[in-house]
Design a protein that fits this description.
This protein is α/β, with parallel strands linked by helices. The chain has a single domain, classed as Rossmann fold. 32% of the residues lie in helices and 23% in strands. The protein contains 11 helices and 14 strands. The strands form 3 sheets. An 8-stranded mixed beta sheet has the order 5-4-3-10-11-14-12-13, sandwiched between helices. Helix 10 packs antiparallel against helix 11. The radius of gyration is 18 Å and the shape is globular.
Length: 287
């Protein structure tokens, strides 16, 4: 479910003008027809890996096809935090554009991915095979505060924006992270969460897991948190209780958050705000 940009950028689906959304939808359908009746996707040879992408998608897939990379500055940062044999968990793995280059470092055996969108998950599983990571475990469904089911919507023109929604056209199972981790794992070296506003729900069901997590990389989008009935204050409280150090990540720029995380997030809550947070037990080298 990956789709990053700069703070206050034109990223949120609700901010894209309706004419542009309709244009993208029509162009996406036209591009999909190129695949004929039985085509599944296009293949991008990118820095992130050899990836089958959705012809209709105007965000992640478009970046991979036109630029040959996606979120590479963030991928480089995250790869620097782990070593071979690291325990890696990705909640909202999308088609694998971030997961795959990081799992190439950690190895497939110690990695676990979650993806609730059936269409995205099909691409993800194909891409894992294409990149020699077929052994990486992919768990279908969402991650939340308690087990159950939720309604979910798949976005055809921005597949990374597929999300939990009361108006969703499908239902998907929900599991907690605490109940999903392999019993023999001593902890998590890197946990990545991109759940389109559902992040607080994910973290509520991961209290025990967070206590054994060395690094957490999570998206912050206050509008999306509010859509899911959550607040930035609760978000900050959960993170602050588990980690001693926090950094705001905007592309290649990494900013150390010196004061209380709650104050920082409250000061960055304008409409359209979106950036990532890197939370650590130990400070970044040199920072």
């Amino acid at each position: 479910m990956w789709r990053h940009g700069t703070e206050n950028g034109d990223n949120a689906a609700m901010q894209v003008p309706w004419r542009k959304r309709i244009s993208r939808l029509l162009r996406g359908r036209a591009r999909a027809r190129v695949l004929a009746a039985h085509g599944l996707g296009l293949v991008a040879e990118a820095r992130n890996g050899t990836l089958v992408v959705d012809a209709r998608d105007f965000n992640v897939s478009r970046h991979l096809l036109e630029r040959g990379e996606y979120d590479w500055a963030q991928v480089t940062l995250l790869r620097s935090l782990i070593a071979p044999g690291a325990r890696l968990v990705v909640v909202g793995a999308h088609i694998g554009s971030v997961l795959i280059p990081i799992a190439r470092v950690s190895g497939a055996a110690g990695a676990l991915a979650f993806e609730p969108s059936p269409r995205n998950r099909r691409f993800l599983e194909l891409n894992l095979v294409l990149n020699g990571l077929a052994g990486l475990r992919v768990q279908p469904g969402a991650v939340g505060a308690a087990p159950g089911v939720v309604r979910f919507t798949e976005n055809p023109i921005n597949s990374g924006n597929s999300r939990v929604s009361v108006a969703g056209e499908i239902t998907v199972p929900v599991a907690t992270l605490d109940a999903s981790l392999p019993a023999d794992w001593p902890g998590i070296d890197l946990l990545i969460v991109d759940a389109e506003g559902y992040e607080v729900q994910v973290l509520r069901g991961a209290r025990e897991s967070l206590s054994r997590t060395r690094a957490l990389y999570v998206e912050y989008a206050p509008e999306q948190l509010a859509e899911q009935g959550c607040t930035a204050a609760e978000f900050a409280a959960i993170l602050g209780a588990a980690f001693a150090h926090a950094y705001a990540v905007r592309g290649a720029r990494v900013e150390r958050i010196a004061g209380p995380l709650a104050d920082y997030l409250a000061a960055h809550a304008a409409r359209g705000t979106r950036f990532d947070l890197l939370c650590l037990r130990e400070p970044l080298a040199g920072g």
